[in-house]
Design a protein that fits this description.
Largest sheet: 2 strands, antiparallel
Distance between the termini: 195 Å
Shape: rod-shaped
Keywords: Cytoplasm, Exocytosis, Transport
Domain Exocyst complex subunit EXOC6/Sec15 C-terminal: 400-747
Strand content: under 5%
Helix content: over 70%
InterPro entries: EXOC6/Sec15, EXOC6/Sec15_C, EXOC6/Sec15_C_dom1, EXOC6_Sec15_N, EXOC6PINT-1/Sec15/Tip20_C_dom2
Domain Exocyst complex component EXOC6/Sec15 N-terminal: 58-226
Pfam families: EXOC6_Sec15_N, Sec15_C
Oligomer: single chain
Number of domains: 4
Structural class: mainly alpha
Number of strands: 2
Number of helices: 27
Strand order of the largest sheet: 1-2
């Protein structure tokens, strides 16, 4: 039942009170009925000092509510009575329901008892099932961990360390924390560091073995790279030689110089797998930085060790291994830089290269300063240049090494000049001063054609007797070897235009070494005419050989021949050439002097003119004709002409000296005519040299005895005093000296014209010629 909804109650009415009190009573009743706050009424009542009024109003309100309360209670009581009656009527129904429920409960319990036991069994089975599921999951987890661990073991046994580490990383990051078995977990936690340590030790050992093996590999690799560079250079030289021989330029075939093949052969020559494997493993172990530093430090130590030169082995024997080791080292480092994935940086490689270059430069400076053999310097220089070619392909800067080589250029050439000086002295001392005999064509090619000494393009018949001796080709071979060694040292050294340097040292070789050696040979070993003639012939051949030397140097230096010809200098062996000709002339003059001794047998006062000239002149002419027939076979015409001119001039001077000397006291006209015949013999001799001299050259040859000819002409003339006429003298007697003319004229004067001769022919008439001669003598004495 629902209680009636409360209503807002109106306060009780009062009769007999005044309106103000009624209003207050109504307000208080309304406030109490509405549940409002009575505070304002209390304050107001105490403010007016009439609390009794408030109490009165409250009591009135209380009494008015008592009746109302009573009415409400009566109403509620009647409802309660009705409810009790209703409950009493339901009590029997409840009892019957209770008994029915009890019966149903008994039946339910009797029926549900087996079900409850089954339920308990079901719950217990569910719990067991959950536990079994958890156990199965734990077992599966442990089995997976065990399987991965077993897989890691197999990888370790198989050497697949990276896969083993990945298995360990998988167990540690994903499975270890979830492993239910504390025993297995502790075991795994213990084994993981051991596995990593084992892997690190194994790869470190492999890396150590690789670092040991790579040194041998580097040496072989460097030798292979330098050998390839040498082969490539040889192919280039062969092609260049063919180009020069053909006097044309043509394109090289690709197979002549194949740079890709050269590079691939180096790339396939070594294996970096152990290094990269160790690097990968250390990356997996988060030890990348420490491994990089470890690798760099070890390689730096290896480089320093490789850069040391053993004092037990001569550098000449060990230099190839020394430089090949360093070349291989940086070929390997270049590969590691390009394919190592940041294992080594470019800056670190440059640091190692700068260290190696510094060490190599120091070694070269030290070793070059000790070497005293040019060939040793050349061997080392060639190998260093090949090293530069090999490493320049990989981007390494080799300029400091080339600067060291260039720095010792002068020392090398000085040593080379010294070696050539010794060789030339030996070659010249072994010369027999005999014309060289060549029996086979290859000998002709080796000794003549190879130095372009031939005077004709037509091959001679064999056996062939050359105009020079064995000293010429021997010295030519020495000079050619000098040129080739000089070019070899200067080439491939960073300097492109080096012909001027080669030419400078070639000038020194010819002008100092060879020229001095020839001068020494001439002064010490040439004693007879045949030797001097052979040396003079050799000098003419050397003149052609020098042209070949400069052309050969230009060709090897890559300079066009026209430019080389433009810069040609004078013949560098001029001193020895002049000395050879002077020596030949001197020996010939001595030989002539031997014949001129016969002048003592001439009767200078005879009245009979000798038929066919005097004996001494015939002997001289016979010797000169024999000399010319022999000399024409080996001496060039210009040399022979100079020598003959000098000898004939010497003959003229000897005749003049005899006339002016004490040997001749008096001269007869018949003796003068005999001298005239002697001079005619000389004149005829020069005219017979038509195959050797031109008309102009024959006239020049006659000037060698023009003095004696003019003297004879003067003495044979009918008016000798015309010598005093400047015009006639300049035209006909320009070669005569006043003193000599006076001396010879004195000896020719007739003895009857002297002071004592006048006593026997005082009244006779003087010869006009003698008178003219006396006038000439008197005038010449006055002038002197």
């Amino acid at each position: 039942m629902q209680s009636p909804k409360p209503r807002r109650k109106a306060g009780p009415t009062t009769n007999g009170l005044d309106s103000a009190e009624k209003l207050d009573e109504l307000l208080i009743s309304s406030a109490i009925c509405n549940g409002e706050d009575l505070g304002p009424f209390v304050r107001k009542t105490f403010g007016t000092g009439k609390p009794e009024t408030l109490l009165h109003h409250l009591k009135l309100f209380s009494r008015s509510k008592e009746s109302e309360i009573e009415e409400v209670c009566k109403a509620h009581y009647q409802d309660f009575i009705h409810a009790v009656d209703d409950l009493k009527s339901l009590l029997s129904d409840v009892e019957s329901l209770k008994s029915a429920l009890s019966d149903s409960n008994s039946k339910l319990q009797s029926v549900a008892a087996p079900l409850l036991s089954s339920l308990d069994s079901l719950v217990e089975a569910g719990t067991v099932s959950n536990n079994v599921d958890l156990a199965i999951g734990a077992v599966k987890h442990c089995v997976r961990v065990a399987e991965i661990a077993s897989r890691a073991n197999r990888h370790l046994q198989g050497g697949s360390f990276y896969m083993a580490l990945k298995c360990v990383e998988l167990i540690e990051s994903e499975l270890l924390e979830k492993t239910p078995s504390s025993t297995l977990k502790r075991m795994i936690e213990k084994r993981i560091p051991e596995i990593r340590g084992y892997v690190k030790r194994r790869v470190s050992k492999e890396l150590g073995d690789w670092l040991v093996e790579i040194r041998v590999v580097c040496r072989n690799l460097g030798q292979l790279a330098i050998g390839e560079a040498s082969s490539s250079r040889q192919r280039e030289e062969e092609v260049r030689i063919k180009q020069k021989e053909a006097e044309c330029v043509y394109a090289l075939n690709e197979e002549d110089i194949d740079g890709d093949e050269y590079e691939s052969s180096d790339d396939d020559a070594f294996d970096l797998t152990p290094l990269y494997r160790a690097y990968h493993i250390h990356q997996t172990l988060s030890l990348e930085d420490s491994f990089k530093q470890y690798y760099f430090d070890n390689r730096e130590l290896q480089l320093k060790s490789d850069s040391q030169v053993s004092s037990m082995t001569p550098f000449l024997e060990s230099h190839q291994t020394f430089f090949a080791q360093i070349a291989g080292f940086f070929i390997v480092e270049d590969r590691v830089l390009r394919t190592g994935g940041g294992l080594i940086s470019k800056m670190e490689v440059e640091f190692l290269w700068d260290l190696a270059v510094t060490n190599m430069c120091a070694v070269l400076e030290d070793q070059f300063s000790r070497m005293q053999t040019a060939n040793h310097l050349l061997l080392i220089k060639d190998y260093v240049s090949l090293l530069g070619v090999s490493l320049r392909r990989y981007g390494y800067t080799v300029d400091p090494l080339l600067e060291v080589l260039s720095k010792h250029r002068d020392k090398y050439h000085e040593l080379l000049l010294s070696d050539c000086r010794t060789q030339m002295a030996e070659a010249l001392s072994a010369d027999k001063f005999e014309q060289m005999l060549m029996k086979k064509e290859y000998e002709y090619s080796m000794n003549v054609l190879s130095f372009q000494l031939q005077t004709s393009e037509i091959a001679p018949a064999f056996p062939y007797i050359a105009p020079f001796s064995t000293a010429v080709p021997d010295c030519c071979r020495i000079v050619r070897s000098f040129v080739e060694d000089s070019v070899s040292f200067m080439s491939h050294g960073g300097q492109l235009d080096f012909y001027d340097v080669v030419k400078k040292y070639l000038d020194r070789l010819l002008g100092e070494v060879l020229d001095e050696a020839l001068l020494k040979l001439i002064s010490s070993s040439v004693h007879v005419v045949s030797q001097a003639m052979q040396v003079a012939a050799n000098m003419a051949v050397f003149e052609r050989a020098c042209d070949f030397f400069f052309r050969h140097a230009a060709q090897l230096s890559g300079v066009p021949l026209r430019m080389a010809e433009r810069g040609r200098r004078h013949f560098p062996l001029t001193k020895s050439q002049n000395a050879a000709e002077e020596t030949l002339s001197g020996l010939l003059k001595k030989k002539i002097d031997g014949f001129m001794i016969l002048v003592e047998n001439v009767n200078w006062t005879s009245d009979d003119v000798p038929q066919g000239g005097n004996e001494y002149m015939n002997e001289v002419i016979i010797y000169l004709e024999t000399l010319v027939s022999t000399a024409q076979q080996i001496l060039p015409a210009k040399v022979l002409k100079r020598v003959l001119r000098d000898v004939i001039a010497h003959i003229s001077e000897r005749i003049f000296g005899t006339l002016c000397g004490d040997l001749v006291k008096r001269l007869s006209m018949a003796a003068i005519k005999g001298l005239d015949m002697d001079v005619q013999l000389l004149d005829s001799f020069t005219e017979q040299l038509t195959s050797l001299l031109t008309e102009k050259e024959a006239n020049e040859m006659k000037t060698a005895f023009v003095g004696i000819r003019q003297m004879i002409n003067l003495l044979l003339s009918s008016h000798p005093e015309k010598f005093l006429n400047p015009v006639i003298r300049e035209r006909s007697y320009h070669a005569l000296d006043n003193r000599k003319v006076a001396t010879v004229s004195e000896k020719l004067r007739d003895p009857s014209d002297s002071i004592f001769g006048t006593f026997g022919a005082r009244g006779s008439r003087q010869n006009p010629k003698n008178k003219s001669l006396d006038t000439l003598i008197k005038r010449l004495r006055d002038v002197s």
